[in-house]
Amino acid sequence: MSDAKAPAATVHPRRKIQLVDFLLSFRWIIVIFFVLPFSFLYYFSIYLGDLKSEKKSYKQRQMEHDENVKEVVKRLEQRNAEKDGLVCTARPPWVVVGMRNVDYKRARHFEVDLSKFRNILDIDTERMVAKVEPLVNMGQMSRVAIPMNLSLAVLAELDDLTVGGLINGFGVEGSSHIFGLFSDTVVALEVVLADGKVVRATKDNEYSDLFYAIPWSQGTLGLLVSAEIKLIPVDQYVKLTYKPVRGNLKELAQAYADSFAPKDGDQDNPSKVPEMVEGMIYGPTEGVMMTGMYASRNEAKRRGNVINNYGWWFKPWFYQHAQTALKRGEFVEYIPTRDYYHRHTRSLYWEGKLILPFGDQFWFRFLLGWLMPPKIALLKATQSEAIRNYYHDHHVIQDLLVPLYKVGDCLEWVHREMEVYPIWLCPHRIYKLPVRPMIYPEPGFEKHKRQGDTEYAQMYTDIGVYYVPGAVLRGEPFDGSEKCRQLELWLIENHGFQAQYAVTELTEKNFWRMFDNSLYEQCRRKYKAIGTFMSVYYKSKKGRKTEKEVQEAEQEKAEQETPEADEPAN
C-alpha cells in the first residue's frame, strides 16, 4: 500500500507577499501584447525560411552545409587559447529552451556562430535515416517527414526542441519504451573537435567512444554540426485509448506499468506492447493512462470511429482533454499523427496555465489560441532577475529519470515533499552498452527480470514534475532550493538521473555521483576539449560562473592529465 497521505490539516505560517508576486499576477499583459505577437512573427519567419530551404535540392543543401562547416573550423583556428575565453556558441542565453540561467556565458568566452545549421540535409528512405543539422526542430522535422509516412523514431513533443539539444542533452517521447531516448536513435554524428578536425562518429568506427560520450555532455566535447537519425514508418493517424485509473500512488504506478509492460516479460512482442505510451497523474488518487497504435486513414474513417483533429487552435488543451476520462470513463479516438506528436505544444504541457491563467478558456482559445504557444525564449527574455529567481524558489520544473519499479516510490516522495500536480509519466529504455556513458542502467538489472526489463535494456520512466508546489498555492513557505537538493539526493540513492536543462543544486561531487564521468573525462582529454570547452558540470551548475572559477577548474583538469589518458579507448 502507498504511504502517501493527504496534506495534514494543520495551520502553517503564511508566506510573506513580495513585490514580485504582484508583478507576476499581471505578467499576462506582457505576454498578450508583446510575447505572443512577437512569437507569432518569429515562428512565421522561421517557417518561411524552412520553406525556402526545402525548395533547394539535398545536394545544394549539403554543399552549403560543407561551406558552413569550413567557416566553423576557420573560426576555431582564430582563437588564441591564452587570451580568449572558452568556446561557446553565439546563441544568446535566453534563447536556450530550459530553466537554467546559462550564466556560463556571462564569463569571457569565444563565440562560434552555428545559426546557419538549421536544415534537413537528406531523407534517405533506403537506409531509413534522416541527416539533419543541429538547429532543426521537431516541428520542422514532423512537417517534412510525416507527409512521407515517416517519422523520427523518437520525436519529442514540443515543436521548439532542437536536434542538437536533444542529442547533447536528452529527449524522450511516447515511443521511448521501444526505442530509448532520442540519442539512442542516432546513427552517426558529425562533430568539429577542439583542434578544428571534423570527424564522423558512429558506434563501431574509430570515434565510437566520442559517439557514446556526446549524449548528456551539453556540447562540451565538440561542436555538433550534423546528425544521422533513425526513421520509422508511420501511418496517418494514432488510435489513442484513454484509460482512467484510481487508487493510491503505488497502485497508480502499477497501473501505468501494466499499460505497456507485459508481466510475462515479453517486452519485445508488438502484439502486447503499444507503440505510444503516456501517463498523467492528476492527484494522489487518480490518473489517466494513454496507449496508442498507428492507424490508417481508412481505419480512422470507419463508421463509428471518433476523429479528433487536435491541431485546431481552439481545441481544449490536451492534458485537460485527457482528464475528462476520469468522468466519462475509458474512451478511444483517432488523432492525426502530427497533431498527436505535438499535443503538448500549445499549452506547454500545463505550464501555459501559469503563463496565461485564462489561456485554457474557450473564448481565449477561439480568439487568440492561434497565437499559442508563446516562444519560451521570449518569455525568458522578458523576465527580470527577480522573476527568474522567484520561479526557481517557488516553482518546480524537473524531469526525473527513475527505474520503472521505483516510480511509485518517487511519486510518493514528490507528493510528500513538493505536492505538484499534474505529473507526466513517459517510459524509456536505458541500454546496456559496451562502454559506460554518463547515464547507464543499474548493474545486474537483468538478473532480477523485473517488469519492463529485457536482457539488453532496463526500463526507466521520465517523471515530469512541472508546476507550482501545493505549499506555494496555499500561501505557505516553500524552500525550492532545499527541496531540489533533497530530490537530487533521492535520485542518487535510487540510481536516478536529473535532466540537465533544469535548475540543479548539485555539488560537483554529487553531480559525478549521479552521472558517470569515466568515458566523458577520457574523451575530454583524448579530443583536447580541456581548455577549449567548459566542463559539463560547470555548464550545468546553478549561479554565475566567474572567469576565474571556470579557468581554475579547467586548469585542474589539465594538470590531472596523464600520458595514458591520450591512448585510444579499447
Automatic annotation (TrEMBL):
Topology versus the membrane: Single-pass membrane protein
This protein's GO CC annotations: cytoplasm; membrane
Single GO MF annotation: oxidoreductase activity, acting on the CH-CH group of donors, NAD or NADP as acceptor
Domain of life: Eukaryota
PANTHER family linked to this entry: 24-DEHYDROCHOLESTEROL REDUCTASE, DELTA(24)-STEROL REDUCTASE-LIKE
Protein name stated in the entry: Delta(24)-sterol reductase
InterPro entries (alphabetical): Diminuto-like, FAD-bd_PCMH, FAD-bd_PCMH-like_sf, FAD-bd_PCMH_sub2, Oxid_FAD_bind_N
Basic and acidic residues bias locations: 546-560
Organism: Solanum tuberosum
